C-alpha cells in the first residue's frame, strides 16, 4: 500500500496541525487539501506520482509532449547503461500509457476512470504484473547489476518484489491516524461528499472545484494498483540518471554517487532526499515544490518552469498536496 486511502482530505486535519508552529506555517501554504501517503519509505515517490498524474489534465499539450520526449530521452540513458528493456519494460509501458490516459479533458478522464475503477473493484484478481513477469524481470535485471560493482543482487526490482510481497515489517502510522475516531468523517473529500467551503463562489467556480476533487480521487483510486511498479521505475530512472550525470550531482554529496545510489536510491524502503528530488525534477522536466512544515523558510523549488508538483514535508515524511 502506498496511499493509505485514495481520498482527499482538508489540510486542516493533517497531524502536523497538532503542533502550533507547524499549524501557522501550513496555514500559509496555498494548497488546502492533501492525501495520506503510507509511511513505508516510499512516501516521496508516492506523493510525486499522485501529484504528477493529477497535474497532467491541466497542463498544455506542448508540455505533455515535452514530458513524453523526456521519457524517451531517459530510455537513452538506460541504454547507455546497457540495461535490457526486460528490466523496466512493463513498468515503462504502464507509465507511458498513463501519461496519455491522463492528458485529456478532466470530465472525460473522470468518466473513463469511474468505469475502469468499477470494473477493477468487481474483479477479485486486480490488475497486477504476473508472477511470471516478475520472475523474468528478476532474472534479466542481473545484467543491470553487473554493470557496476556498486550494484548487487539486492537491486531495485528485487527490492520492489520484496516490498510488494510485504517481506519487511514497517508499521504504517498513517493508517492509525485514519482509524482515529477523533477524525471527523465529514472532513473526508471524495466524489460523493465534496466539501464546499465558500457558498459565495459562483456556480461555475464551484463546479470546477468539484470536478478537480472528483478527478483527483478517481486518479488515486486508479493508481492504487500501480504505485509500486511506478515507484520501481522512478528509482531506476533516478539511479541511472545520477550515475550518468556524475559531474553534475557529485559536488552535492560527500560519498561517491555509486555508493549513494546503492545506499539511498536502489533499496525500495529508503525515501528520497534533496538530491533525488532535484534529479527527478530534471528527468521529467516538471518542477517540484516542497512545503516544509518545520521551518520558517517553508518553501523550496526543485527544477525550473511554471508548472510544479506540490508536496508537503513534515519531519521524516511526505504527503501530496492538492488545490
Outline the secondary-structure elements:
Layout lengths: L8 E2 L9 H7 L6 E2 L8 H13 L5 H20 L4 H17 L4 H16 L9 H15 L10 H9 L8 H7 L23 H21 L3 H18 L1 H4 L7 H9 L8 H11 L2 E6 L6 E4 L5 E7 L2 E6 L1
Parallel strand pairs: 3-5
Antiparallel strand pairs: 1-2, 2-6, 3-4, 5-6
Task: Note the main attributes of this structure.
323 residues, alpha+beta
Describe this structure in words.
The chain is α+β, with helices and mostly antiparallel strands and 323 residues long. Helix 3 (61-80) crosses helix 10 and helix 10 crosses helix 13. Strands 1-2-6-5-3-4 form a six-stranded mixed beta sheet. It has a single domain, classed as Cathepsin B, Chain A, CATH 3.90.70. Helices cover 52% and strands 8% of the residues. It is built from 13 helices and six strands.
Tell me the major beta sheet: 6 strands, mixed
* Mean pLDDT across every amino acid position: 77
Overall SS class: alpha+beta
What is the tally of helical segments? 13
Number of domains: 1
Organism: Edhazardia aedis (strain USNM 41457)
Protein name: OTU domain-containing protein
Domain OTU: 32-323
GO molecular function: cysteine-type deubiquitinase activity; ubiquitin binding
Structure described in brief:
The protein is of the alpha+beta class and 323 residues long. Helix content is 52%, strand content 8%.
Amino acid at each position: 500500500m502506498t496511499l493509505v486511502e485514495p481520498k482527499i482530505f482538508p489540510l486542516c486535519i493533517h497531524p502536523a496541525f497538532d503542533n502550533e508552529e507547524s499549524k501557522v506555517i501550513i496555514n500559509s501554504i496555498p494548497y488546502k487539501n492533501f492525501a495520506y501517503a503510507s509511511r513505508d519509505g516510499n512516501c516521496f515517490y508516492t506523493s510525486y506520482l499522485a501529484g504528477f498524474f493529477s497535474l497532467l489534465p491541466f497542463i498544455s499539450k506542448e508540455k505533455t509532449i515535452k514530458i513524453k520526449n523526456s521519457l524517451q530521452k531517459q530510455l537513452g540513458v538506460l541504454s547507455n547503461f546497457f540495461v535490457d528493456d526486460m528490466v523496466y519494460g512493463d513498468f515503462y509501458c504502464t507509465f507511458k500509457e498513463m501519461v496519455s490516459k491522463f492528458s485529456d479533458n478532466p470530465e472525460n478522464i473522470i468518466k473513463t476512470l469511474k468505469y475502469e475503477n468499477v470494473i477493477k473493484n468487481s474483479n477479485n484478481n486486480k490488475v497486477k504484473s504476473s508472477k511470471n513477469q516478475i520472475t523474468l524481470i528478476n532474472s534479466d535485471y542481473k545484467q543491470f547489476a553487473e554493470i557496476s560493482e556498486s550494484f548487487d543482487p539486492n537491486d531495485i526490482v528485487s527490492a520492489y518484489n520484496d516490498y510488494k510481497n510485504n517481506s519487511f515489517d514497517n508499521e504504517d502510522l498513517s493508517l492509525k491516524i485514519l482509524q482515529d475516531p477523533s477524525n471527523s468523517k465529514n472532513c473526508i473529500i471524495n466524489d460523493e461528499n465534496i466539501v464546499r467551503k465558500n457558498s459565495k463562489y459562483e456556480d461555475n467556480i464551484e463546479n470546477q472545484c468539484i470536478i478537480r476533487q472528483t478527478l483527483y480521487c478517481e486518479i488515486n483510486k486508479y493508481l492504487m494498483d500501480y504505485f509500486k511498479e511506478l515507484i520501481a521505475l522512478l528509482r531506476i530512472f533516478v539511479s541511472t540518471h545520477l550515475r550518468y550525470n556524475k559531474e553534475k550531482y557529485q559536488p552535492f554529496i560527500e560519498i561517491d554517487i555509486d555508493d549513494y545510489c546503492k545506499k539511498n536510491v536502489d533499496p525500495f524502503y529508503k525515501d528520497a532526499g534533496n538530491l533525488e528530488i532535484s534529479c527527478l525534477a530534471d528527468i521529467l522536466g516538471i518542477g517540484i515544490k516542497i512545503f516544509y512544515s518545520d521551518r520558517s523558510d517553508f518553501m523550496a523549488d526543485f527544477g525550473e518552469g511554471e508548472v510544479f508538483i506540490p508536496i508537503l514535508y513534515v519531519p521524516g515524511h511526505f504527503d501530496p498536496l492538492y488545490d
